Amino acid sequence: MNKDPKEIQTIIATDCGSTTTKAILIERKGDEYRLIVRGEAPTTVEAPFEDVTRGVLNAVAEVEDLTGRKFIQNDRIIHPRQDGVGTDLYVSTSSAGGGLQMMVAGVVKEMTAESAQRAALGAGAIVMDVIASNDQRQPHERIQRIRSLRPDMILLSGGVDGGTTTHVAELAELIAAADPRPRLGMAYSLPVIYAGNVDAREIVKERLGSKTSLTITENLRPVLERENLQPARLEIQKLFLEHVMMHAPGYKKLMEWTPVPIMPTPAAVGSIMQLIAKEEGINVVGVDIGGATTDVFSVFGEVFNRTVSANLGMSYSISNVLAEAGVENILRWVPFDVEVGDLRNRIKNKMIRPTTIPQTLEELMIEQAIAREALRLAFEQHKLLAVGLKGVQQERTISDTFEQTESGATLVNMMELDILVGSGGVLSHAPRRVQAAFMLIDGFHPEGITQLAVDSIFMMPQLGVLAQVHPKAALEVFHKDCLIRLGTCIAPVGTAKDGDDCLEIALEMPDGSKQTRSVKFGEMLLIPLDVNEKAKATIHPTRRFDVGAGRGKTIHVELTGGVAGIIVDCRGRPLNLPQDKDERVRKLRAWNKALDVYPGE
Amino acid sequence: MAHAYTPGLRVARQTEVKKERRLPLKGEVLVKVGDKVKAETIVARTELPGNVQTINVANKLSILPEDVERHMLVKVGDWVEEGQVIAESRSFFGLFKSRCTMPVSGTIESISNITGQVIVREKAIPVEVDAYVDGEVVELYENEGIMVRTIATFVQGIFGIGGESIGVLDVVAENPEEILQPDALTPEHKGKIILGGSLVTIEALRRAQEVGAKGIIAGGIGDADLRTILGYDLGVAITGSEDIGLTVVVTEGFGKMTMAKRTFDLLSSRQGMKTSISGATQIRAGVIRPEVVIPLDSSRLESDGEIEDAPSTGLTIGRHVRVIREPYFGRIGKVAALPPELQKLETEAMVRVLEVEFEDGSRATIPRANVELIEE
User: Fold this and answer.
1) pLDDT of residue B211
2) What ipTM score was computed for the predicted complex, to two decimals?
3) Is residue B363 part of a domain?
């Protein structure tokens, strides 16, 4: 970037998604940066256009229409700004053309292969398969797999520094034998990154140097006790630009327009989330539920993890949610009777006509039931991968003897979670905001006190790439314009019989008024508290319940309001729905009524 | 966004159809521009590298990996037959011999002194591409394939399974509402493509497999039946490689769905003609729809060589649309009004809508996202 960040007045940021290209205009107003408008247009990577910049220009043209200002000249974004025309900074992310699709390989599935998987996912890739020496497959099966998947890139890891080289050599031989071809373009050789045992570098070079476009970087697991994922992640992103993007239509041109490297969309989201978590010292979980895939991001204790559930989504992949969750798990969230065959056909029809929207309330309820299961499954997958390092000897003290933690335990601790952020059509476009809050609660089961929010227009990708060069602007827009605060969820951990006392909450509202509410087990309660409002609360859980300080322990907290308000969820954790259908429907209706989720309840 | 509706599926009486026929890897093109080809004509050919097998010679002979090369009886590049001894070790003054034999025939590709593995590549796998439709070669992609052009009746489906099939079209259903009955299929349908009505059931699919039909075109298919015939629950709409012995093209959707009358009448008029169908469907980026292509020979070509243009995409008053979501799913009508302002649905969502007048004269307000143009 050639301009001093302080002098930047106008910023245009785009995100080229697989179906839509979104542009946002950010400007400095006085001392702070704010979102001005957004525009969008269909992405134009596919025929007949086959030029991503067309969609970018169309989206920016919408920004021009909305502001009455000029940003485009001769089919280019005017940059730098001159005489009030154009923009000072242009940045972009991209997931068009199916994003970055990778295979990773490592020696031990639970160790180096898992670290490699985390490195690839964190760099914004979709991991098509994980090859490991102990993955129970025959060598020829692995070779067949590499050949048939045609990834954009392979990340090969394996072995701690100074350890055995045999297994790494074996993996390199398999990759060489498969002679893999990249997905895009017949002519160029496949990028392979080696990030394993330093002693095996020469062997890998010998095996793969001539057959692939090999890059060697630091070992991502130099010793068992430590991961070093960043060098591999940076290398992946560099190669993504140099190889994959260069072969995607129009990207060469787009890359010339921006002084900042184009980031894969999920990597940009990860970057803004890490920045927020660090700035505020909080733990964050974010989810982006799209038509085809669902991404989950988490930052716990400054450890960032990202997973992508490549086949969980609300349109293209909706049928896969049904296949993975099972029809019973979807039906348990539907507050009326529906015939299984009919439900199955409806879901398949949505799959083949992905752009349709629910017209009736029943259709909306079914769609939101499916979303709950998609969120739940995606989060379960995330928890399995967002774990501490496996195979590590832990030092134990006497106190640990009673509280043994396994190596490889999940880092996701719902009681420690401060904020849960959702985005994606089904959450962002829910007709009532409380519906989004309820879907997030049912999909993620937050515990204790958790703030809920949605990223209304999924601006996080653009802000993530902007944060690389102008963190101040990115953070200001994130706080002021990006999130729609839904409110706060209070969910005591524990179970009891329906109707037993669960908690009492004493509130001091912003206007100074006081109120005390008692909530029984099995009930939900909504207490209105507006956006930007805070209430002081004293929460007394009964002896079987924990809201963060331990069972039966009172806590004093400040609760943040939102468009939905304060949601008290006394259905218990773990959350169990009644097995009996009539009973379940009765309860779902009662909860929907308590939170005023649907019209006419 | 400019296009808040689903572009329609094409149903064309007579149109130009161009098909790219490409090899997965570079190879040899067997025809030239100007050649008339039949659907079955092989137009390009190549060989995929053979499958790879690994043999851990060090383990088999109980020797160190670095000693493997010394014990090999064959070298890299050699072609070796199945059962042939490729490595041998002697121990105890040569009294005991251990041998390693080839599990398959193939070429020795590498011998590793680090892993002790020998990699063998089996015979190359021939791959051929046919023309898929009767027509003329109009373009040649060197070493990769061709473009074939034909004038044909062309119908796009919404969903399909199975790859490409070629056969004679046989109209079995009498009307577009009729459910395709298994007993309507006889051994005479071997090699044919069947036109059904509103639904193909699992019984009819099984019967079609039994008599050796090449394909079925129908309005709808039940999801439960789809799962039964595939043996798994289809998660993502990417199809075309299913191996069920026939191709299925569904024109309307899942469940019992009366085939659009225009589609049914058009296909019925092509009774007995050679038909190419493909079930390949991909709804995500780079949409691929299943299709029915019925090339028209000169005797069938309509006057003045008039050819329908590519479809227009505008949503205007009077155009025919199909509703593609509950509660009017599958009904066909005419656009009666296009109010520009957003309207509130029962769900409370504010969306752009249109008014549709159905064939029985009744009217309904429907989100624009929930209709599909019927391309004429």
Assistant:
1) 97
2) 0.84
3) yes
